[in-house]
Amino acid sequence: MNVLITGGAGFIGTHLARRLLREGCSVTILDSFTPQIHGENGELPADLRDEVRLVRADVRDRERFHAALDGQETVVHLAAETGTGKSMYDVLEYEQVNVGGTAVLVDYLVNCRASKVGRLVVASSRAIYGEGKYHCEEHGVVYPPVRSKEQMLAGRFEPLCPHCGRECVMMATDEGAKIQPVSFYGLTKQVQEQMALLYGETLGISAYGLRYQNVFGPGQSLLNPYTGVLAIFSGLARKNLPINVFEDGQESRDFVYIDDVVEATWRCIAAQGESREVYNVGSGTNTSILAIAQRIVTSLGSSSTVTVTGDFRLGDIRHNKADIGKMERELGVTPRWSFDEGLAKFLEWATAREAGNLAYEESLQEMSKVNLFYKG
Fold it and tell me: Is the model's pTM score more than 0.85?
């Protein structure tokens, strides 16, 4: 089939493109090569340059985006501004790219009578859940609100029950959980997903919202300071610089290896029949940020010191663990990569490349100026 991948020059897009080529698909990549992600390298990886059609364009460019859509049968919409923290102050950019760019895509699907697109796969995010699903001893399943500045300044980092205010315990968050994003990025992802499902139903085409967890592996950006704690920590460790861990270090994330993400995405592309579904795409396990920092330092033989600072960013969630039962049952995808196995592959890849300048401290200064980053 003919497949267009928006944002296809990025981390997930390039891995997916290779899989599609192995499956015999004709692949078009549309990408604007944002410097924050790609740096000065505005080129596809060498192994893809002669194998795919490349369209250099922004998803907000209606004319060029629509031209790239001509003749496509499946669209995988990955293009987006990423990073929860930055989204809280770079509001217009996130709205225009994430929501506006998706509107340009939907505009084509609705109004182009020659459209051959019969399948739409949109990169959603676990960020749409906010804090996600928890358990309170008194009130059972609850969905805590965003943690307040006052709560975290007092060193109380665990989410609180919205009914009694007591600390509650994380549960695996399933697709039926309450949607309550605590960042503007999460809100834009919610809108993208709902646009895809709404117009999939309206047009009678298949549409999938894939709620990716924390995707990692070889090929991810080592330049973007707003996403990717692995890139940040590994970059610091390679230079033997101090690594400061926010909160009490016990905040955790569901890290899912890129190969497992590509497999789940491919299953939606290749699915038979018409369907409109959402899926968590994760590992089903969570790892603390402190443990990650320590493993990276040990793996690299670094002399970096790891310090738990109590610093925090407003809008960050505390924990993340996906319930992946639906992905396993309906897509037949069970994650094959453990975090440790994936980390070893990522570090092997990263250490063969220049560490680069993440401008990490600068990003924290930006957040501090708009009252989103606080010292503990």
Answer: yes
